[in-house]
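Dear colleagues,

As part of the handover before I leave the project, I'm documenting each prediction I ran so the next person doesn't have to rerun anything. This entry is a single chain, and its sequence is reproduced below.
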Amino acid sequence: MEYVRAFITGGIICAVSQILIDRTKLTPARILVSYVSLGVILTGVGIYDKVVDWGGAGATVPLLGFGYSMANGVKEAVAKSGFLGAFTGGTESTAGGIAAAIVFGYLIALIFKPEDKT
């Protein structure tokens, strides 16, 4: 049942994204930034924790989950280091994902030789 809940949660998040792309003039980049910001805000007010508890990986893998990870990292760092934790916690908690994105992006760029779209 855990897989079904994860599929439903991730599917709803992706469906909302697709609707926003198709029905609004928002660019995909603005939608992505909005999702990360929304993940931070919903985690800050305690709503997204309930979504993660129910949806598992379906809630933590999409970009809302990146915001969730950042917000939780800030909470932990503030509890441990005080005010300075607000500046370092988000980066520390998401460093693995950021590093992986950079490394894999570089490898793909080497393999596929990106070109300008014009």
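The chain has a mean pLDDT of 90. The chain has six helices and no strands.

All the best with the project,
I.
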